[in-house]
Amino acid sequence: AWHKNAEKEGEHAMGLLLRRQRSSFLFCIFVPGRTWEVDLAPRSLYVHLPFCRRRCFYCDFPIAVVGDRASTWEARTEAYLDVVLRELESLERGDLEPLVSCYVGGGTPSLGSAASIERLLAAVDRRFGLAADAEVTLEADPGTFDLAKIRAYAAAGVTRLSVGAQSFDDDELRAAGRAHDAAAAAD
Questions:
Q1: CB under 8 Å to 144, separation ≥6 — which residues?
Q2: Were 152 and a residue from 114, 162, 168, 184 both cysteine, which residue would form a disulfide, CB within 3.0 to 4.6 Å?
Q3: Which residues pair with 171 in a beta bridge?
């Protein structure tokens, strides 16, 4: 939060002040002699699942490389979800409206099973509520899902996949250090 001192002669003050107020945020816009306040309760949630098969050359996100073995992905995802779910339960819900969006990013969340994603979304719904028409997005990399897995994610509550193909050119994918090739991206 910042502001200019509106009392200084000849200085025009404008700014945005953000302060936490119970379970919501209060945004104050101020100009000398005028103030507007807007109470904005959080309506969206981002959950980071940090696991990837490998680190792409351009990536600077906080991730954990788990390789190509599905058993490693599942074990790490389940242990991490245990911690995330405990954290969710510790948060104060307050008197918020249900969330209108939940974005599960990473990493490569599509490495996890539909059962893991369903477990996560059920906990989010219990804690914060998910609106009936909420957009629930899951990041997915080519080669980490197939039609059966997409259907299972949809049954778990995912309404949108964000597919990180990056390119459909094998040379560009290799240069970026991607784990998939153009055929997997097109499939």
A1: 53, 108, 110, 111
A2: 114
A3: none
Torsion angles phi and psi, residue 65, rounded to 5: -80, 125
Sequence-distant (6+) residues with CB within 8 A of 161 are 110, 137, 138, 139, 140, 145, 150, 153
Rg (CA), the chain: 21
Q: Where are the beta strands (DSSP E) in 11-166?
A: 15-21, 24-31, 34-40, 44-49, 51-52, 64-65, 99-106, 130-140, 160-163
Q: Is the pLDDT of residue 166 over 60?
A: yes
Whole-number average pLDDT of the chain: 76
Alpha carbons 124 and 122: distance in angstroms, whole number:
5
Stronger pLDDT, 20 or 107, i.e. the higher one? 107
